[in-house]
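Protein modeling request. Please complete all fields; requests missing the sequence field cannot be processed.
Requester role: graduate student
Desired output: 3D structure, token encoding
Chains: 1
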Amino acid sequence: MQILNLATLSLLIGSSVAADCFGSEGISNKFIDGFWEARQKMCSNTDCAYQQPCTVRTSKKYTAIGSATMQIELKRKNTAGKQGFKDCWDATEYCIREREVDGGTWQANGQFYQFNGWFD
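Delivered output (120 residues):
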């Protein structure tokens, strides 16, 4: 099963560039809800302290022919000595809508956001 998962993951990894976000456009709609959940946890400060660096995790399972569970991680930190995360909602929405979330990053205004997605 691991070989199948690695093969599936390799299909998702690619490279594309759109504005400040980098990553693959191959994320299936079957798993996309997990990325929206991670965004909600982070930007609403339910799993992160207000305006603090943090990492949140979610997972999404899909069952059709076989089964696949995608683990999803979203990290944020400050750069350039700046504080705060005023662009959390917009930055993470942009990456999700562009399907650039399996290794996608967004960096601007002293903020850095990174999505990671992998299969178990």
